[in-house]
Amino acid sequence: MLTLVLLLIFLVVLGLSWFQGLWNNLLTLINVLFAAMIAVSFYEPIATAIANQEASFTYLYDFLIMWGLFAISLILFRLISEFASLERVKFIMPIEMAGRTILAIWLAWIVICFTTMTLHTAPVQSTPFGGAFASSNAGVFLGMAPDRLWVGFMRSRSTGVFAGSDTFDEGKTWTAKHFHRRKNFEGEEEFRVRASE
User: Fold this and answer.
1) Is 54 exposed, middle or buried (0-12, 13-18, 19+ CB in 10 A)?
2) What is the pTM of this model?
3) How many CB atoms lie within 10 A of CB 151?
4) How does pLDDT run across 81-130, given as a tens digit for each residue?
5) CA atoms lying within 13 Å on the CB side of residue 117
6) 182-189 own/partner pairs: CB under 8 Å, 24+ apart
7) Exposed (0-12), middle (13-18) or buried (19+): which is 91, by Cβ within 10 Å?
8) N or C terminus: which one in the chain shows less Cβ crowding within 10 Å?
């Protein structure tokens, strides 16, 4: 089930972005990439701060804040790039067609990677969507595990030149941590009552 939904998302993003052309796809790819990186980098401290103030929806905060940060960052980056790039760059047709196709596929893949990663933080059962994420190492979307690819990408970006005070997922336990977190959520009385209704 999840694979079909992700495939549909992939095809929709691919189709919509392909028609936007090479230059627009390049700007959109950069915007989406940086917005997703910002969302993943900053959602945990914000969610922790909110959860310390209001503990009612702690299982929902990570998911909502990550998507909220992504949306806000994407809108801001898009506005900046629209203002900075008033003239659309034109390419000769073979480069335009090849470039828009490659960038549309790349953009759709980044959206799938980010989306599957955020599903780990959603307040759902431990193996949601018909058995997806059956373990912390399970691959979704045709066995390619885009969620773990994005986690690995974020880990690699938080070291070296981009290293801050903390390395993202330094112990390589992010997916396992969220798998156990969903298990805990599944075991709570509130979840069991809602699931049986």
Assistant:
1) exposed
2) 0.83
3) 22
4) 989 888 888 899 999 999 999 999 999 999 999 999 998 888 877 777 76
5) 26
6) 182/120, 182/123, 182/124, 182/125, 182/126, 182/128, 182/133, 183/126, 185/59, 185/123, 185/124, 185/125, 186/125, 186/126
7) middle
8) C
pLDDT tens-digit map of 4-59: 888 999 999 999 999 999 999 999 999 999 999 999 988 888 888 888 887 667 77
Greatest Cα-to-Cα distance within the chain, rounded to the nearest angstrom = 62
Encoded tokens for 95: 């480069």
**Single-letter code of the amino acid located at 118:** T
Two tokens at 37?
């990186």
Give the chain's length: 197
Cα distances (angstroms) measured from residue 20 to each of 97, 128, 129: 11, 34, 32
Q: Which residue has the tokens 């330094």?
A: 170
Cβ count near 159 (within 10 Å): 12
Give the separation between CA 111 and CA 5, rounded to whole angstroms.
Answer: 13
Burial class (CB in 10 A: 0-12, 13-18, 19+), 95: exposed
